[in-house]
Structures are given as C-alpha cells and as structure tokens.
Give the backbone structure.
Amino acid sequence: MAKKIKEVKKSPLRSSEEFRDLADYLYYLRTLRDMSMRDVEEEARRLFKKGKIKKDGLVSYAYISNIESRRVSSPSPVILGTLALIFNVDHEMVLEKAGYLDKKRSKIEEDVAFTLMLKEVPRMTDDEKQSLLDYIDFVKSRRKKYEKGPKKG
C-alpha cells in the first residue's frame, strides 16, 4: 500500500529561486517530505489510479534518480506536473525552475514589443516607412553576411 504524503516537518518550504537548478530543487522537495524515490513512484501510481494524472504523467524511481543526478536535464512538463502535485507545490514554479517559462515569457515579451512597434506604422509618413524598410533590408543583409561565416585569409 502506498504511503501517504508526509507532512512538512524539517523546515518551512523554500522558494525555487534559492536552488541552483531543478535537480537540487526536486531533491529538496522530496527529502523535505521524507519520501524515497520509490515513495514518489508509488504516489504517482496512486494518483493515476484515482484519475488525477494521465498515464504519461507516471514517473519511475529510476527516472527521478536520473533527474536528481542531472542525467535528465529537461523532464517533460507533464512529469513536472506530477511531481508538483506530489510535492504540493505550484506547477508553474517547477516549470520555471526547469526553464520552460523563462523561454515562453521572453518570447511573449518580444512579441508584445514587436506588436506595439507595428501599431506605430500607420502613423508614419511615407518617408519614415521607406526608411524603416531600408533599415530592415540592411539588417537582413548583415544576417546573410554573418550566416556565411567570417572571411578567411
């Protein structure tokens, strides 16, 4: 029979930002709850049987070991969701520690900045629009130059 998740006894829950990487953070959460890797695997199976996670969210003790020893550097968001549920922490915090949200947020910020820039185009004069097109052509030509690589000799 699977063990129940043990109450936090050692110390208050620390922020994910205090840890070097995902492996350290997950190890901290697991040991904080006094769970072995097998306990985590059994808890995932229990959650699957209860319909709280899907089959692709099942995690083995060997996989947990690989994450904690850094042999697996990017576990799937689904697995991270299972671990967040087991350790009773916010899924987004775990995703952020794994590097998933930083990339997404950066892309969103770039898209917003680009969209705001494009909203200015209708207000531009024809000369300003032509200057912008010329500048875009210049940037593209530099990119092509650097894609070929540096000149030899």
In short: Helices lie at 22-32, 37-49, 61-68, 77-87, 91-98, 100-120, 126-148.
